């Protein structure tokens, strides 16, 4: 056993791969993706300097096999690092961030600084963490982006309160999942031997000037977010991230700052210098490893990868199940079961000892052996070497021969064997994904498939997905898209690609969506191949979406109409309207653009839906589209009445009177062209005349109580206005009579309007004069309004006596109880 004892716990260092490269790392900078991901190598002089020559960054696997090369010109690189999606971020001095995948393909870019700030500030330090990055500017402000995986990442600023007189030396980030506030917290080591905790609420000085002899030059946060390791000149200090507890203070006796400082799991800190690696445990215990060449540390959640120019190593704490079984002088049932592996066919003394502990009458069931079986299965799952994995599994199988186990233990055994088979394949030189069991469990299956597909290992991804029982359609889709991109220069392959993809799809007993493949083919210019694949897409709505994306609007409308899907028809109409600017112009049947409307007009369902859709979206530019369709493209049967109704609705949505009059005249012209809409034409003409009359009344009398009123309301308001503008009462009554004659108001209706208006405005003298004329409504209404408005008895008797029919007068008295 190659174990290294650190206090009460043991650590093991395993050689994972011998590097295939021939590279000296003494002048390089190396960073690795989390969860056993790829490596990025950069020449040290290219970091922080603006080179005139072309800069190169190399991507490798953990076995030193080349993956890709990334190049850029002139820009000064400030920092680089990986996020959990195995995307490489390159941050430059001017605030530009480039994102690349593991094969060096450009994904996207975004800016940390606005165009104005880029002229005044630069990026001087960058820290990249699981799903974002934090950059320190020359103005001592923090630019934070915690959503780098988004298509358009959001960036915000966190002021630190620092200045040129108090600079930040080092920086680490406490992820939101570990902070008490649930927000990103940044720890800054300052030049005055203090530490600032900065979040969106502002900076908080931890006031530890007297507790640290010199400024902090390196910091690292434990994978569980609970502890912060700080290195000052020769002194390692570990405190809680809340800065309430000091966990450790260790003197390294070093007179220089370590090249790197990282955590190895959750309970030890690694410090590397040019020729050695120092491990410090929680109680001041330490281990020292000698190296002949520079090394680089890549921290993981449960271990640490060590990269040298010759090999890739893994340093981790010995997993609990293995320590339980393999530790010296172990006499527990798990260890005894493992030690009796070679004697499974013979009744071993140690096994008899375990079984003798069963109380009489309990049969062959032994809780201790069951626990021993489970411990050996767990040990096999966390073991890295295949030979030792088999030993643990054989020990577990040997234990099952002595007792009757439940199905749950059998399922655990099968699950562990299945997991190990996948992990062992991933740890090979190809693809060299050095995952531990803890990392594998934390990494979702979909993320594992993403990593394999990002490297174009489609055959391996297909086997893994089949073995794990997950969907395999995404593997075929990704393979097809990559195949198309690789053959884009050969247009003649269009005819050969479809049979190849069909054969691949037939081997997969699940539905394969053609949408991503068709989209990729269309983007690459393989239109014929895309149209051929489109015919095999089962979903009609998906066919319509793809056709619209390919700008085949007429064909999309035909497909939607054939399927008689309302949603598909609406979608086709909406997208066609947005993507065809000519629809907003007046078109004629002879124009080249009429074919679309002619297609719609041939289908009654499409035509009806188009009308309903456009009418529901008023007032927008779609009204002109519907107008053009109703007037010009309705299969030779113009709908002038419907077009007039549409224009009438739009006219009353106009805010300016001139625009409304203009629109109403258009309504009249539309109604005039239809034989069945003559009544609507005359009614609209009367309405225009009334609106013009009302507009003139408002100008004449200086009031705004007429426009948009009904005819009855206009007459009523004219008579009421006589009470406030008595000098112009004659003109007001004259205008009321003009309205009466122009719009042929019946005598009874006019009499009622005048009676109610005079009574409501208190013009009782004028009411007497009006009653002297021959009344078209009789005198009973006069009596009623006098009683309603509380007039004296003499006034009521005056109008009561004007009623000449005795029966009518007596009935009115009885009704009004007067």
Key phrases:
30 helices, 818 residues, alpha+beta, four-stranded antiparallel β-sheet, elongated, five-stranded antiparallel β-sheet, 42% helix
How many beta-strand elements? 29
Q: How much helicity do the residues have?
A: 40-55%
Biggest sheet: strands, sense, closure? 5 strands, antiparallel
Mean pLDDT comes to 83
Global structural class: alpha+beta
Please give the order of strands in the largest beta sheet: 1-2-29-28-27
First and last CA, distance: 120 Å
Q: Strand fraction band?
A: 15-25%
**Count of helical regions:** 30
Uncertain parts:
345-365, 582-593
Shape: elongated
**Taking Cα atoms only, what radius of gyration do you get, to the nearest Å?**
43 Å
If you had to describe this structure to a student in words, what would you say it looks like?
- With 818 residues, the protein is an alpha+beta fold.
- The strands form seven sheets. Strands 1-2-29-28-27 form a five-stranded antiparallel β-sheet, with no helix packed on it.
- Strand 8 (88-92) and strand 9 (96-100) form a beta hairpin.
- Helix 3 (333-339) packs across helix 5.
- The chain is elongated and about 130 Å long.
- Residues 345-365 and 582-593 have low confidence and may be disordered.
């Amino acid at each position: 056993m190659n174990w290294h004892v650190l206090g009460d716990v043991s650590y093991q260092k395993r050689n994972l791969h011998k590097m295939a490269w021939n590279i000296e790392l003494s002048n390089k900078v190396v960073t690795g993706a989390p969860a056993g991901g790829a490596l990025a190598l950069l020449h040290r002089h290219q970091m922080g300097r603006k080179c005139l020559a072309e800069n190169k960054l190399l991507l490798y696997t953990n076995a030193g096999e080349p993956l890709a090369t990334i190049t850029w010109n002139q820009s000064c690189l400030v920092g680089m690092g990986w996020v959990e999606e195995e995307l490489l971020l390159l941050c430059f001095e001017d605030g530009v961030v480039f994102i690349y995948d593991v094969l060096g393909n450009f994904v996207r870019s975004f800016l940390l600084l606005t165009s104005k700030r880029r002229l005044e500030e630069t990026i001087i330090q960058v820290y990249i963490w699981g799903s974002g990055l934090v950059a320190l500017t020359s103005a001592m402000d923090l630019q934070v982006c915690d959503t780098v995986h988004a298509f358009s990442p959001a960036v915000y600023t966190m002021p630190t309160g620092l200045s040129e007189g108090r600079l930040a030396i080092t920086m680490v980030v406490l992820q939101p999942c570990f902070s008490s506030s649930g927000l990103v917290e940044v720890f800054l080591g300052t030049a005055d031997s203090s530490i600032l905790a900065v979040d969106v609420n502002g900076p908080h000085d931890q006031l530890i000037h007297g507790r640290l002899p010199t400024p902090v030059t390196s910091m690292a946060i434990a994978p569980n977010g609970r502890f912060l390791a700080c290195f000052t000149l020769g002194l390692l200090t570990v405190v809680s991230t809340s800065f309430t507890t000091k966990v450790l203070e260790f003197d390294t006796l070093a007179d220089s700052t370590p090249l790197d400082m990282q955590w190895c799991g959750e309970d030890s800190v690694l410090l590397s210098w040019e020729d050695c690696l120092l491990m410090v445990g929680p109680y001041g215990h330490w281990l020292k490893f000698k190296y002949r060449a520079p090394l680089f540390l890549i921290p993981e959640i449960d271990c640490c990868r060590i990269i040298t120019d010759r090999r890739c190593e893994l340093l981790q704490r010995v997993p609990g199940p293995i320590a339980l079984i393999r530790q010296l002088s172990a006499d527990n049932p798990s260890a005894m079961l493992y030690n009796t592996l070679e004697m499974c066919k013979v009744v071993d003394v140690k096994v008899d000892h375990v079984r003798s502990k069963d109380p009489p009458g309990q049969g062959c069931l032994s809780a201790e052996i069951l626990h021993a079986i489970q411990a050996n299965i767990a040990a096999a799952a966390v073991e890295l070497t295949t030979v030792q994995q088999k030993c643990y599994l054989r020990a577990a199988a040997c234990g099952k021969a002595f007792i009757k186990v439940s199905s749950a233990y059998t399922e655990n055994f099968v699950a562990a064997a299945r997991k190990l088979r996948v992990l062992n394949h991933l740890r090979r030189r190809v693809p060299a994904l050095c995952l531990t069991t803890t990392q594998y469990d934390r990494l979702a299956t979909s993320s594992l498939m993403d990593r394999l597909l990002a490297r174009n290992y489609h055959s391996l991804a297909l086997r893994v997905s089949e073995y794990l029982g997950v969907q395999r359609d995404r593997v075929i889709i990704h393979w097809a898209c990559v195949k198309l991109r690789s053959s884009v220069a050969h247009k003649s392959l269009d005819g050969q690609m479809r049979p190849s993809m069909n054969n691949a799809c037939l081997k997969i007993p699940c539905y394969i969506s053609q949408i991503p493949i068709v989209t990729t083919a269309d983007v690459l210019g393989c239109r014929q191949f895309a149209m051929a694949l489109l015919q095999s897409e089962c979903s009609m709505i998906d066919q319509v979406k793809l056709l619209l994306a390919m700008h085949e609007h007429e064909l999309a409308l035909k497909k939607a109409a054939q399927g008689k899907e309302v949603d598909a028809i609406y979608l086709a109409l909406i997208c066609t309207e947005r993507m065809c600017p000519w629809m907003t112009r007046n078109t004629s049947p002879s124009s080249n653009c009429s074919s679309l409307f002619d297609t719609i007009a041939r289908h009654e369902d499409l035509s009806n839906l188009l009308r309903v859709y456009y009418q529901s979206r008023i007032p927008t530019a779609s009204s002109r589209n519907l107008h053009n369709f109703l007037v010009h493209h309705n299969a030779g049967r113009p709908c002038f009445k419907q077009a007039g109704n549409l224009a009438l609705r739009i006219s009353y949505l106009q805010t300016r009177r001139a625009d409304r009059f203009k629109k109403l005249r258009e309504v009249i012209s539309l109604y005039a062209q239809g034989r069945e809409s003559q009544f609507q034409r005359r009614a609209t003409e009367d309405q225009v005349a009334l609106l013009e009359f009302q507009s003139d009344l408002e100008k004449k009398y200086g009031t705004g109580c007429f426009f948009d009123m009904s005819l009855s309301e206009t007459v009523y308001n004219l008579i009421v206005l006589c009470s406030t503008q008595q000098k112009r009462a004659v003109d007001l009554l004259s205008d009321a009579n003009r309205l009466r004659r122009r719009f042929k108001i019946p005598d009874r209706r006019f009499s009622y309007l005048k009676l109610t208006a005079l009574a409501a405005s208190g013009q009782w003298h004028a009411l007497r004069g009006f009653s002297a004329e021959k009344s078209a409504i009789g005198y009973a209404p006069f009596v009623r309004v006098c009683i309603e408005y509380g007039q004296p008895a003499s006034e009521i008797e005056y109008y009561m006596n004007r009623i000449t029919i005795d029966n009518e007068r007596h009935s009115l008295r009885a009704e009004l109880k007067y």
